[in-house]
What we know:
Layout: H1 2-29, E1 31-40, E2 51-54, E3 64-66, E4 72-78, E5 83-87, E6 94-97, E7 103-110, H2 115-124, H3 135-150, E8 157-174, H4 175-178, E9 191-192, E10 201-218, E11 223-233, H5 243-253, E12 263-266, E13 269-272, H6 279-282, E14 283-291, E15 298-305, E16 313-320, E17 327-334, E18 343-354, E19 360-372, E20 379-393, H7 399-402, E21 407-409, H8 416-426, H9 433-445, H10 449-463, E22 466-468, E23 471-473, E24 480-483, E25 487-496, E26 504-513, E27 518-528, E28 540-551, E29 576-590, E30 595-610, E31 615-616, E32 624-625, E33 629-640, E34 645-648, E35 653-656, E36 662-670, E37 681-693, E38 699-710, E39 720-721, E40 744-745, E41 747-756, E42 774-785, E43 822-832, E44 836-843, E45 855-861
Parallel strand pairs: 1-7, 11-21
Antiparallel strand pairs: 1-4, 2-3, 2-5, 5-6, 8-10, 8-20, 9-10, 10-11, 12-13, 14-15, 15-16, 16-17, 17-18, 18-19, 19-20, 22-23, 23-25, 24-25, 25-26, 26-27, 27-28, 28-29, 29-30, 30-33, 31-32, 33-36, 34-35, 36-37, 37-38, 38-41, 39-40, 41-42, 42-43, 43-44, 44-45
Amino acid sequence: MEAKINAQTFINKLFLSITFLLSASLVFAQTKTVTGTVKDAKTKTPIAYATVAVVGAPAAAGTSTSTNANGEFKLVFPTSYVKIRASYVGYDNKDAFVTNDAIQTKEILMDAQDNMLEEVVVKAKKKKYSNKDNPAVALIRKVIENKDKNRLSGQQYAEFDQYEKMSLGLSNLSEKFVNKKIFKNYQFLFETDDSAKTANKYVLPAFIEEKMSKVYYRKDPSKTKQYILGDQRAQFDPKFIDNDGLAAYFNKLYEQVDIYDNNISLVTNQFLSPIANSAPTFYKFFITDTIKTSQPWLVELSFVPRNKADMLFKGQLYVTLDGNYAVQGANMTVADDINLNFVRDLQVQLKFEKDNKSRFYLKTSTLGIDFSLTEKGMGIRGSRTVNYNNYKVGVQQPDSIYDGPSTVIAYNVENKKATKSLFETQRPLALAQNELNIYHNIDTLQKIPSFRTFMDIAALLLSGYKQAGPVEIGPVNTFYSFNPVEGFRLRVGGRTTESLSKRFYAESYAAYGFKDQKWKYFFSGTYAFNNKSVYSFPMHYIRASYKKDTKIPGQKLEFIQEDNFLLSFKRGDNDRYIYETNYGLEYKKEFLNHLAIGAGFNINKQTPAGSLTYQMLGENGQNKLFNELNTTELSVNFRYAPHEEFYQGKIYRTPIFNQYPIFTFNYTAGIKGLAKGEYNYHSFNVGAFKRFYLSQFGFADVTAEGNYIAGKEIPFPFLTIHRANQTYAYQLNSYNLMNFLEFVSDHNASINVQYYMNGFLLNKIPLIKKLKLREVFSFKGVYGGLRKENDPDDPNYGSKVFAWQRNAEDIQSSYTFGSEPYMEASIGLSNIFKILRVDYVKRLNYLDHVDAPAWGIRARVRFDF
């Protein structure tokens, strides 16, 4: 009987089990697909890497996913479940009900957890905020105390795969703008802006770049080595745009964010990190939540600037409560009142995951910035996402892995198909369709004649050159100028382009002065050894040139020609000129580590013009006038600028400064008897430049220089004529209250300090801070002298060298240094109308010199964020 009962029981259980399995199979066989996006409820900005899960489904069922970089997700799950939930650090969880339709789309809007922070701020009005006995400050100090062991540099060895994506486009375009007749052939470019706060707004994607790398880090000796496995971007016609420079500039604006650095560089400025050593001095911290649904538990630590106009963040940090006090996530933005130009919106999202040693490493960094001249007008919106995978620590690689430059191109740049295949098969984050379209759209756009016409006009306005087939005419700002010697001066010139030849470049101009009735000429031919533009990095060329033109002794300009129309306006006596004829041969080579070497050979003839005189004062008034000076020079030079970045223009490079110094060395030898050379001398010049970042106190650009000229009885045109400025524009590397040809020396040392405080003081003054002005200070000093064998005042050699210059009243107007250096200082306001710098410049000594100005107002146009 017992056996019969047990058998019956077994059959019943078996029947029930089969029935349950069949029922479950039937239920799970009926599934539905839900796709959609997760966005910020207030800004409509997509939330990348948020978790979307089916409510009630077992974790092992695979019914959860994460949104991609564009906030998009896809879930496939049984019809028996009717609710999904989105969650992300810094936001309240948001549920959404779904129907039993087989395919459906959902938009989930999440509310940021900033309401708690606002409540804390309101309470702070009743009780003064203090760091003392503040648990939030105690917690952030723990984070600061432990950050060295939690960051990458806390590991002896680390390696990971890195994927970077940067995209930009015009934003906030109105329907009226898009539908203009001029854009009739460009409608394929525009897209509806889903993140816009108002309807009928469009975006115009314009740039995308992707990069895949393998990165190795070693702590001792410190080295980070990046092997770039693939790099692709939407390319514009290099005739109009320097694509490499454009990418470098965008990368500087959208730098990688390391929360563990004391200072975070963004849009060419430095922001103090909320976990910097000095963060409690500049930030207010509040504990606004404890998250127990995560392992380990997290504390939401909210922070705001003490001064809303300073270069600081506001947002939330998520700190682990496992004794390591690591950052598990961060959401950051900037205050509306911050002293930052042209930035309409800025968002930083950081997400960390555990490594194989249970330490948190940065998994994903997303930076979004919207630039605009006005709050509601069209702008430029861009985002940069960096994703890290296969993170490993403690794996020691051979020394050969770390040797060499920090960045190495580890793929065949000519094999476009292989690069494209790499991204199609191994890209860790899928591109949205609109991002994929950018590559195709840019290629299509450049085939439209009207667009090429637009780029031609834009190139003329921005670079000053007009395309004319295989040549370009310009620069247009030199076509007309005037000066006391030449009077009205007309000039026309141009140069060849890559359309004519990639290896050979020719450049020329002709100018005519209506007062002196003389023609001036310049011709040069350059051969590039590397089959690239002569100006593109790395340069490697040889150039021959002939020049017959005027020159102001002591005027040395950078990034601008001497006959620029705006420099025609000068103060004081400025009619001392030289007619110069020069035959030159120049060789230059740059290396990938940004070391540059050069050599030159020059034959030069000088003739004084205007009130300039070359004369020796003989005994008994027997003065000897010289109408011509000849010299033959050989020169070598070196320049080392580690990690240098720049935007390459038509002729000049616009530097993108970083914290690394720049060193220069120049040697020039005058050779008597060679090609009519009349003098022997040796000139040595060394210089160094460095930008010092001072966190909340701004930054300082410091230049130091030294010069020594060996030789005797050398005329002053071949000595150091110190850089002077008699225009009304503030020149960074010249002495703005020094007159032309005022100081001459054969040995000297100088210092130039430009200190930009970025509004740190003015931001503390009520009402004034609303103007968003910024303080700027400068100091320039130079000291040197003349050895007796080159000094016109020496009783033994005075009659063997050229006499000092004298003005129309026969008063001496040129000198060497006395017992003290020449010094001038300035205090100024920058960021006036966001583009103008105005300085009050004070000359500190040598005020007894003829026509020496005691002070002056100088202005400079400076575009800066």
